[in-house]
Design goal:
Layout lengths: L5 H9 L1 E7 L2 E12 L9 E3 L11 E11 H7 L12 E3 L1 H16 L5 E2 L2 E6 L5 H17 L3 E6 L4 E6 L2 E5 L2 E2 L1 E15 L8 H17 L4 E5 L3 E5 L2 E16 L1 H8 L7 E2 L1 H14 L8 E6 L2 E6 L3 E5 L2 E7 L2 E2 L4 H18 L12
Antiparallel strand pairs: 1-2, 1-8, 2-4, 3-4, 3-17, 5-7, 6-16, 6-21, 7-20, 8-9, 9-19, 10-18, 11-12, 12-15, 13-15, 14-15, 17-18, 19-20
């Protein structure tokens, strides 16, 4: 395995891509990108970064340089930086969220929707700089070494996204341009890790809807086998998780599987068609960027696609961190706002961000 030089690392910081390849290695790229509508399926990794609504015509790219690097070796390249953010983080457009929550309640009572996931962002005018970026990158590397989460990121000198998600959209290691067997995960239902027995009816319902939504995506395409319900703890929060194994009747491409699955009810809505209408209108009020988008790569026999949550996004106007909540029958506004705050605090912690102000919904 080749060694990364300091010059390579500095170029990576300016224009890079990063993914968890396995529990102890990262797949990274840097240098010029060549964008395309479909993966090139050559000897280089194909990286995948569409928008949430899959409207980008060229979501795939290869990068001029790439390598596989051990996480510990990668961390050794990052200088020790003790970031101190003296900035105010504030909620954006909470009244819009509240009005949409009430709209969702009505749609659920009338049977139009069973579940949807509205979201809120914390925003700061502070810009992302090299020191802040490296501090977050180091913190995320530590995080994925402790928890079963997957690092991902894409950035240039103007904008970017960086995070560590617990949610797999799908993963396969039997790939020959097309995929016939893969694993997906229903990840929905969140509660504080210090509340051991908080599996209430609402959380179970929320989780079951996600499983139902995933299965319905493949009714005519393949057979889906559900594993047992498990809990996965990530520092301060715990998720309900169920692994599902899918065997397709006919092999599909990476993009075709994304379009069949994304968004699952974990980050989208159910039923999917009517739910997407709601999400598109919600996006007009609070632009989501790449929050919840599918992101991934194809390389050798790997086809990994993750759900882009637990991240920070940035551009010239500042930085933002987002979190959503699953609204279904039995949801209450205050409880859902508290869930969003719980997730936002977890994201701040995994990024190593220390606020000078507390998170308060206003």
């Amino acid at each position: 395995m080749m060694k990364m030089t300091q010059k390579n690392y500095e170029e990576f910081l300016k224009n890079g891509t990063a993914f968890s390849l396995d529990p102890s290695h990262l797949l990274i790229g840097w240098g010029a990108r060549k964008w395309s509508a479909t993966p090139l399926n050559g000897t280089d990794p194909d990286f995948y970064f569409p928008d949430f609504f899959l409207m980008i015509n060229t979501p795939w790219f290869t990068q001029e340089n790439w390598m596989i690097i051990a996480i510990d070796e990668f961390k050794a390249l990052i200088p020790e930086i003790k970031e101190s953010i003296q900035a105010e983080w504030r909620f954006k457009k909470q009244p819009f969220f509240e009005s949409k929550f009430l709209e969702l309640e009505t749609k659920i009572k009338e049977g139009e929707l069973t579940k949807a996931v509205p979201y809120l962002f914390l925003h700061t005018d502070k810009k992302m700089d090299v020191d802040a970026f490296q501090s977050k990158l180091f913190s995320l590397c530590n995080y994925i070494q402790r928890y079963e989460a997957f690092l991902y990121g894409l950035w240039n000198h103007e904008e970017g996204v960086l995070g560590a998600t617990p949610e797999i959209l799908f993963k396969s290691h039997q790939v020959n341009k097309e995929i016939i067997n893969f694993e997906t995960v229903a990840c929905a239902g969140t509660y504080p890790s210090d509340k051991e027995h908080l599996l209430c009816h609402k959380l179970q319902l929320e989780h079951d809807i996600v499983i139902e939504g995933i299965k319905s995506s493949f009714n005519s395409l393949g057979a889906v086998i559900s594993g047992p319900l498990k809990t996965a703890t990530f520092a301060s929060i715990t998720h309900l998780m169920t692994t599902l194994d899918v065997t397709l009747f006919k092999a599909l491409t990476f993009d075709q599987i994304v379009r069949a699955l994304h968004p699952t009810p974990a980050l989208g809505a159910y039923p999917k068609d009517k739910g997407m209408v709601f999400l598109e209108k919600y996006q007009m009020g609070i632009p989501r960027g790449r929050f919840g988008a599918p992101v991934g790569f194809m390389f050798n026999d790997y086809a990994h696609c993750f759900v882009a949550i637990r991240n920070i996004q940035w551009e010239k106007r500042g930085m933002q961190i987002g979190a959503g909540c699953g609204v279904c029958a039995g949801s209450a506004l205050d409880s859902e706002l508290n869930e969003i705050k719980l997730k936002l605090n977890a994201i701040l912690n995994l990024l190593g961000i220390h606020l000078k102000n507390t998170i308060e919904a206003t």
